[in-house]
Amino acid sequence: MKPWTPFEAERRRMVEIQLRHRGIHDERVLEAMLRVPRHEFVPPEFLERAYEDRPLPIGGAGTISQPYMVAAMTDAAHVEPGDRVLEVGTGSGYQAAVLASLGATVYSLERNAQLADAARARLARLGYGQVEVICADGSQGYALAAPYNSILVTAASPRVPPALLEQLAEGGRLIIPIGDLQVQRLERVEKTASGISTRMLEACQFVPLIGKYGWPEEDFRGR
Ligand code: SAH
Fold first, then answer.
1. What residues contact 23, with CB distance under 8 A and at least 6 apart?
2. Using CB atoms within 10 A as the burial measure, which of 88, 95, 190, 220 is most buried?
3. Residue 91 in contact with ligand 1 by CB distance below 6 A
4. On the CB side of 223, how many CA atoms lie within 13 Å of its CA?
5. Is the CB of 155 under 6 A from ligand 1?
6. Ligand 1 within 6 A of 64 CB?
7. Is 65 among the catalytic positions?
8. Taking the model in full, what pTM does it have?
9. What is the CA(92)–ligand 1 centre distance, in A?
10. pLDDT digits 0-9 by tens, 119-137
11. What domains can be seen in the chain, in order of their start residue?
């Protein structure tokens, strides 16, 4: 018999009600969301709220995204086992764990050193050895491990950072919230042999991407 794991019933309910019923149909994505223990990625005071239909604060200026948003971005990225994936905005490490759970090798960039250290330790403890967390300005990407089959930006940007497009493999997908500081629209940018094509997905609200190709560092001192 399969051993009982904590919060399994909550996780199953989250997948059915928040994800499948809202149009996430890729069974591999749903299974990854069922496997990854989201409660391990939230601060202890939010343990009982880990599977609610909302983002939660994680300290610093970060939030762990709403489960639906994590699933929608993962779905749009069409991740295959063996893919190389870049995530910008590690935060808690939850999105990175979901990507790793699909068999990807994940490079995840976080500008806040404290969050990066905590996420790195958490992912190692939970056995996600195929995630590398790097403390850096992710608006410039991570050229060292490029090109990537998918790039997911989990912070809001005023524009598509050119470095990310450069580091995307041909046939690759970039998923990024573009807009102002209040509200954004998720965009799916595909790089093909004949050029770039962009599809608008849903409206969303992310914390700002702060850096060279995001919002200027000077406007967000100490965050
Ligand atoms: N994906 C995360 C949630 C991200 S919240 C999760 O699953 O928990 C957005 C994160 O982006 C914050 O932690 C913030 O510090 C980080 N961030 C903002 N600008 C950044 C930049 N230029 N480079 C890397 N990380 C950045």
1. none
2. 88
3. yes
4. 15
5. yes
6. yes
7. yes
8. 0.96
9. 9
10. 999 999 999 999 999 999 9
11. 8-220 (3.40.50.150)
